[in-house]
Design goal:
CATH topology of the largest domain: Heat Shock Protein 90
Shape: globular
Helix content: 25-40%
Structural class: alpha+beta
Number of domains: 2
CATH superfamily of the largest domain: Histidine kinase-like ATPase, C-terminal domain
Number of strands: 7
Number of helices: 5
Distance between the termini: 58 Å
Radius of gyration: 19 Å
Strand content: 15-25%
Order of helices and strands: HHEHEEHEEHEE
Largest sheet: 5 strands, mixed
Length: 195
């Protein structure tokens, strides 16, 4: 800005906007990296109302993302853990779905409790993930690069954090194709006695 701003003052607004955008991106990246490190600590776990967390995060994200968020959440899905972990899981899955989905397509969230497990599903109607990339998307900093996704902002940390948290709770995470297009992320949390 200093070098070109005096000769070309018209570049100042766009340069400032770019700097602001990149600063926010770096702040988000730093926070995500800190979250990854924090999740390696073993604080004492308490009984968490996952139903309430999922509802709250769906309502919060619905005010931020352009898509509608439709959710079905069974009452009193309880799990021993950390509230922040479950907030991060649903928040990152919703943000990921919103990034790769058209604004006019809904995001579906389901939380159910069965005798032996609790299941969380986030489904979108976005661009989908090629089969050969599905295993890679949980690696830190990995992003699917193709002509449709290359313009979408992101750090490649969100799904890595989800996977790390899923592993912490011994919850397998799968990604399958949605119909007619899109992705379905499913986490299955075993009940304590089933582990």
């Amino acid at each position: 800005i200093q070098r070109r701003g005096t000769k070309h003052p018209e570049v100042i607004p766009s340069s400032m906007a770019f700097i602001d955008k990149e600063s926010k991106r770096l702040e988000t990246l730093s926070n995500q990296l800190l979250d990854l490190e924090k999740n390696q600590s073993q604080d004492e776990m308490t009984l968490v109302d996952v139903s309430q967390i999922v509802r709250e995060e769906c309502e919060k994200q619905a005010t931020i993302v352009p898509q509608s968020i439709e959710y079905f959440v069974e009452n009193q899905c309880m799990k021993r853990g950390h509230k922040r972990d479950f907030q991060q899981i649903i928040q990152n899955l919703l943000e990921n779905a919103a990034k790769y989905s058209p604004a006019d397509q809904p995001i579906h969230v389901t939380l159910t409790q069965e005798q032996t497990q609790m299941s969380l599903t986030v489904a979108d109607f976005g661009i989908g993930i090629p089969d050969d990339k599905k295993a890679l998307i949980f690696e830190r900093f990995y992003r699917v690069e193709d002509s449709r996704s290359s313009q979408i902002a992101g750090s490649g940390i969100g799904l890595s954090l989800v996977k790390q948290l899923a592993d912490k709770y011994h919850a397998p995470i799968t990604v399958t194709d949605n119909q007619p297009q899109g992705s379905i992320f499913k986490l299955v949390f075993p009940n304590e006695r089933e582990r």
